[in-house]
Structure formats: C-alpha cells, structure tokens
Amino acid sequence: MKIMPVKLCDAVGCCKSNPAGYKDSLKGTYYYREPAPTTIAAYALERLEEARLSDEATHAANTEAMENNKTIVEQINALMAEIGMPDGYSEIDNKSMARYPKKIHYTAGYKMDIARHVATSDGYETAMYKYNSLKSEYDKYVEQVNKEAELAQKKAQIEADKQKAERRANLEIAAIILRYNLDPDSEWRDILSALREKNQRLNLAVAMEMTCNNWSDGPDDVEYALGEFTIATEEDRDIECCINGCCGDNWDDDGRIFRDCEWNYNELYKSIEDQQLVTDAKLALAKVLDE
Q1: Beta strands of the chain (E only): which ranges?
Q2: Which of 145, 158, 174, 219 has its CB surrounded by the most CB atoms within 10 Å?
Q3: Residue 25 belongs to domain spanning
C-alpha cells in the first residue's frame, strides 16, 4: 500500500465573489457593446454550476485515494503508538519574560509529515460551503438585475407608447386642420374654438360638457353659448328652454345637471347633422380636458 495523490477541489474557490466581476470575461464575446447585467448574471451562474460539477467529479475521483491514505495514516499512528513514539513534545519558552514561563507544545515530526504528504481530505466540504455562499449571492444578483431589467423594459414601453400617442395626435390634429382649413399652428384649444363656431348646437353642447367636468365657475360658459344660440325651429326653442332652465336662478351648483337634463349634451351631439364635425369636436375637447 502506497500513498496516493489527491487532487484538491478548488474549482468553486476560483469563482468570483461578485457576479459583476465576470463582465470582463464577456468583453471578448460582446466587444461591440457592453454586456447586459442579465447576461452577466446568467454567465456567472453557469460558471458557478460548472465549478460545482467539476469539484463533485474531482471528489468522486478522489474517493479511492482518500480511503487508501486514511488506512495508511491509521497504520502509521498504530505503529507509532505500539512502539511508544509520542505524538509531540513540549519545551519551555526561553523567550518568555514571565516569572513562570509557559511551555510550547510541538507536534511530532511524523505527524507533520503525514499532514504534509498524506492527503485524506480534498477540500470538498469547504468547496460546497463556498458554493452555497456564492449561490446565495449570485441568486440575489440575478433577482436584482432581473428587476432592474423589468423596470427598464416597462420604462421603454411607456416611452414607446408615449411616442406612438404623440404621432397619432400629430396625425389627428393635422387631419382636422386640413379638413377645416385651419391655421397650421393651431393647438387643440384653438381647434375646439374654431369647431364650436361652426355649429350653435355643438357650441352649446361643448359648453355644457366642459361645465359638467368643472363647474367651479358656475354655468357662465353655458349661459354665454345660450346668448349666441339662435332659435330657428321649434326644437331649437325646446333646447333653449331646457338649458336655460338649468341656469340663472335655477342653477344648483352642480354641473352634472347638463349631463342629466332632457336636452343634455349627448342629445345635442346626436341632433347635429354633421357627425364628422361632432367627432372632431369631441376629440379636441378630450385633448383639452386632458391638459
């Protein structure tokens, strides 16, 4: 029986303590851009798992050698005990300045030679302890970068949606400006004002809806629109009578009355022949209310 070599399980011990440290290892692959944190995290986990598998394989290969060497150590210790060889010795510490100097204990040389040359352990337990510690840190890093990536993706999506909405709004405003030959520099408020001038019922309906959304100034806008309302038909008279009955002394400080009365703004919109004008005015009104 001879001493057999035992390979140290040191693959996990060579892994980086911080997963972000693998960034430089990826530069060769991602030379044209910085590797994403999620890519680094995935790469770090791969290296850690490879190291674990390597140490497990090394440990399995060491089993025979370690058992052999343990037997040798037991035989050496048994022989030394049988012949009365001490496992160490002590001597007074001559460098000590104490009144009663302490003794220094030294391990027997054969014991030190055994520890130095007869490996009975390959560091597997230490490697697995290191693996579990690193795995915990790597998992935290992965969770962190995934959250950051998710937030960045949501932010990018919000920005993309915003840009799409702006493009749609630009197309919508351009179409209305062309349709009614309005000033090219018109904003939504300008467009709404221009469209209201094209139909008295539309003008009144918009005033009612705006007041329903915000009646802090009372029914002033509705009363002004009524002042410009010309009665040309019996239906116009009914409209004027109904809306006028919600204003003045009858105003109850609640703009929702213009949503709920007989000739509410929705009914007025329906009564307008040019529904394209109504659609465009509603869009302009929605934009104005969102400001």
Answers
A1: 88-92, 103-107
A2: 219
A3: 12-151
**Residue located via tokens 């090394």:** 58
Is residue 32 domain-shared with residue 145, that is, in the same domain?
yes
Please state the φ and ψ torsions of residue 215, each to the nearest 5 degrees. -105, 25
Give the count of domains, the chain: 2
In-domain check, residue 260: yes
Mean pLDDT by 10 residues, the chain (291 residues): 94 93 75 79 93 96 96 94 91 80 87 93 95 94 92 91 82 92 92 96 96 93 94 95 90 92 96 96 92 76
Q: Are 15 and 74 in contact (CB under 8 A)?
A: no
Contact (Cβ atoms closer than 8 angstroms) between residue 183 and residue 190: yes
pLDDT digits (tens, 9 = 90+) for 32-50: 677 888 888 999 999 999 9
What pLDDT is recorded for position 30? 54
Q: Residues 221, 225, 228, 233: what is their CA dihedral angle, to the nearest 10 degrees? A: -160
- 132/192 same-domain check: no
Burial tier of 207 (Cβ tally within 10 Å: 0-12, 13-18, 19+) = buried
Q: Residues 132, 69: one domain?
A: yes
- What Cα–Cα distance (Å) separates residue 120 from each residue in 11, 39, 64, 69, 221? 19, 40, 10, 6, 95
Look at residue 162 in the predicted model and tell me its pLDDT.
86
Residues sharing a CB contact under 8 Å with residue 208, sequence separation 6 or more, in sequence order: 222, 225, 243, 258, 259, 264, 265, 268
In 3D space, the residue among 167, 168, 159, 158 whose CA is nearest the CA of residue 283 turns out to be: 168
- Are 23 and 89 contained in the same domain? yes
